[in-house]
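Customer escalation, tier 2.

The customer says the design service returned an amino acid string that "doesn't look like it belongs to this structure." They asked us to rerun it and document both sides in this ticket. The original structure tokens are below, unchanged.
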């Protein structure tokens, strides 16, 4: 997936926010898990509640190490004959090894990353455009999927995305998706690249593995408590996370807007009254807000929205303010 296509980052970004855009996300990893004890295995390996899933559901989740650090964040799909797990591209081998090391009897695990491709059509007009080429209605709820035909090709269409807009992710083999990609582009949908995708996800405070979450961060400080189900009997990392929950997190992932000109970048230091309180994990210029925005881990004491902070940008302390997320509130996500 290129950084951007010929139109450039801003037109690609605005296409997704205002109209429709198309991403090639085939680099993502896909594992298939099935067998009599697949549900038990995934209940133990992931932090969300797999027991609540029915066929047709998608679930955002994560895997943790025993110390509560994050192995990866992922999407799980409940298929009629098992589970499809979608993981981050950079973590395919690590995640597969982690699952393999913990595998139990009566469970089979298969890495299908080479045989799956994935494209994502995102934006307020995505349903109107895609529905011209499907043999089924696209009115499924957020975080659900349907198997069916798109322009005669057998695919899985999931109502998910990484942009904060109404959108659909289409899974299938490379040949089918190349045809569907070309059909959508020829119907006027703009292709969009990694740079636009990164701005879009940041404006929604969607975590990026390697920036905002990794093995040194836990779901509670990353704002992922909502996918951490402590009512489950046991899962990898549960004991450590319970201790963290009881003692309180020492830091928190917050979102901030720059109050003066300046673009925050990963690694920049965060200050309050000349005291260092944390580091930026993601930052960019928001085309719609016309200001710098970012995410940062800071001392828990200062995490309240409205708090005035400063970002060290090239040895200058530039004022910023902690805000409630998402940065962009009025989107087509639930239309």
């Amino acid at each position: 997936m290129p950084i951007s296509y010929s139109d450039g980052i801003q037109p690609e970004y605005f296409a997704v926010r205002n109209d429709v855009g198309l991403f090639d996300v085939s680099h993502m990893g896909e594992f298939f898990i099935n067998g009599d004890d697949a549900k038990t295995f995934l209940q133990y390996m992931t932090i969300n509640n797999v027991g609540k899933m029915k066929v047709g559901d998608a679930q955002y989740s994560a895997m943790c190490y025993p110390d509560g650090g994050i192995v990866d964040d992922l999407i799980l799909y409940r298929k009629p004959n098992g589970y499809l797990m979608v993981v981050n591209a950079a973590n395919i081998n690590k995640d597969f090894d982690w699952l393999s090391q913990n595998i139990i009897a009566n469970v089979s695990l298969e890495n299908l990353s080479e045989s799956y491709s994935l494209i994502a059509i995102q934006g307020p007009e995505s349903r109107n455009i895609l529905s011209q080429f499907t043999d089924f209605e696209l009115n499924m709820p957020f975080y659900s999927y349907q198997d069916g035909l798109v322009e005669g090709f057998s695919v899985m269409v999931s109502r998910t995305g990484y942009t904060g807009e109404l959108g659909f992710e289409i899974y299938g083999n490379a040949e089918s998706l190349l045809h569907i990609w070309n059909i959508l582009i020829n119907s006027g949908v703009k292709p969009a690249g990694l740079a636009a995708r990164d701005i879009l996800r940041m404006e929604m405070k969607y975590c990026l593995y390697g920036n905002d979450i990794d093995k040194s961060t836990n779901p509670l400080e990353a704002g992922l408590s909502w996918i951490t189900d402590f009512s489950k009997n046991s899962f990898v990392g549960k004991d450590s996370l319970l201790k963290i929950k009881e003692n309180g997190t020492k830091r928190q992932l917050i979102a901030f807007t720059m109050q003066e000109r300046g673009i925050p970048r990963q690694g920049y230091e965060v200050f309050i009254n000349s005291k260092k309180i944390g580091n930026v994990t993601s930052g960019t210029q928001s085309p719609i807000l016309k200001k710098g925005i970012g995410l940062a881990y800071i001392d828990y004491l200062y995490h309240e929205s409205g708090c005035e902070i400063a970002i060290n940008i090239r040895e200058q302390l530039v004022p910023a303010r902690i805000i409630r997320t998402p940065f962009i509130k009025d989107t087509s996500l639930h239309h």
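Tier 2 assessment: The sequence is consistent with the input. The chain has a mean pLDDT of 98. DSSP finds seven helices and 17 strands in the chain. Sent an explanation to the customer and offered a walkthrough call.
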